[in-house]
Amino acid sequence: VTGEDGVKRWEKVAEVNLQDHIKTPVFPEGKSPEFYDRCFQDYFHKISGEKFSEGRPLWEFHLVKYPTLNAAGNVIFKIHHAIGDGYSLMAAMISCFTRSDDPSLPLTFPKNRIRRSSAAHGRAAFLSRALTSAVNTASDMWFSFSKTKFSEDDLSPIRSGDPAVGSRPVSVVTMTFPLDDVKEIKGRLGVTVNDVMTGTIFLGTRLYMQEMDPGSQAAETTAMVLMNTRMLQSYNSIQEMAEPKTTLAWGNHFAFLHITVPKLIGMSDGDELEFVRTTSATIQKKRFSLAISLTAKLLDLYRKLKGHEATASYLYKALKSTSMAVTNMVGPLEQMALADQPVKGMYFVVAGTLHDVFVTIVSYMGQLRVSVVAEKGFIDHDKLKSCIQMAFHHIYESSCH
């Protein structure tokens, strides 16, 4: 709400009516899973474009009690980003689940192993790393600032440049990749799981651009990579994040980096791995940069000095100047259960942004689950999905056979 001083603030709701937040759609009875799959997709696309009512808390649960091709039923958690970032919302969602095999045991998550440099120890090595960090930080900060303030990506098959893209209908496609296969590529190339998946998405995106418009291969294309600034091994409970003096507070604590998507120009068969190597080198370089933490601190300082609307305007420009966005979350290793019902799979998506393509990744039960939110009528989502899958196949075959 907006107070008398013109400042917008959160207003505590006196009473929450659950009937306003729990939705159960009704479809025709006695139909096939294929029919209900189409109904579910249409329903999902419909609610993804609907705005929340500002007169009540910005969250909804949608219970779809019909068997689709992939599950006996589906639950959609629709939550506004103003409530919290991916870490906060994932922590809230995880708190609703138990382990399917033994509810008395906690869910566990993959360890966040940071690849360490093999450089020699000593004063000279320390000074070298410090200088590298300073140079990379300055370079990354300037690139992000200039991309936000002065330059925009070229228009291309994945960037329409339409300022109204955030309010247009979207479609969502999902795909899964075996984590063991990703780790095999990782081991052969000496990179990380994140490097493999980001390289796959970049290559698939360029293959799609090439198919849709061969001339677009020269287009300057930048991905905004959104990152959680909490470097943690697991999720904290809602109670822990709500404590007054906690350093793990609930809310939006994220930063972003701009990463240039490599081009296909001059690439021959077998060069698919260069996408992974180039991506890995770029990300490794940014690991020796303070740009992520500085961006987060500057956004927080900007919010305190200029206010929420000015910060939102800055983020709007940062989003509008790039072609796509990529983000990822870590999910549990074990199968989860909700109300004693085992959860076969899960995905998360981000809708209503200024990108024609937004890619999200979450790990769950030995699978990496990728979702692509694409603007309807502009992006051929089936072709883009096929290109990303083809990219992974090429990378796997080139690295492992």
UniProtKB/TrEMBL annotation:
For the keyword Lipid metabolism, the answer is no
Q: Which GO terms describe its biological process?
A: triglyceride biosynthetic process
O-acyltransferase WSD1-like N-terminal domain segment(s): 8-197
Tell me the membrane topology, using the record's own terms. Single-pass membrane protein
Provide this UniProt record's keywords sorted from A to Z.
Answer: Acyltransferase, Endoplasmic reticulum, Transferase
Q: Which domain of life is it from?
A: Eukaryota
Catalytic activity annotated for this protein?
a long chain fatty alcohol + a fatty acyl-CoA = a long-chain alcohol wax ester + CoA; an acyl-CoA + a 1,2-diacyl-sn-glycerol = a triacyl-sn-glycerol + CoA
Task: Please give one Gene Ontology molecular function term for this protein.
Answer: long-chain-alcohol O-fatty-acyltransferase activity
Keyword Oxidoreductase assigned to the entry: answer is no
Q: Where found in the cell?
A: Cell membrane; Endoplasmic reticulum membrane
Pathway, per Swiss-Prot/TrEMBL?
Lipid metabolism; Glycerolipid metabolism; triacylglycerol biosynthesis
Q: Name one Pfam family in it.
A: WS_DGAT_cat
Q: Name one GO cellular component term.
A: endoplasmic reticulum membrane
Domain O-acyltransferase WSD1 C-terminal residues, every copy: 250-395
Q: Which family does it belong to?
A: In the N-terminal section; belongs to the long-chain O-acyltransferase family.
User: What protein name is recorded for this chain?
Assistant: Diacylglycerol O-acyltransferase
Which species is the source of this protein?
Answer: Linum tenue
Which lineage ranks, top first, belong to the organism behind this chain? Eukaryota, Viridiplantae, Streptophyta, Embryophyta, Tracheophyta
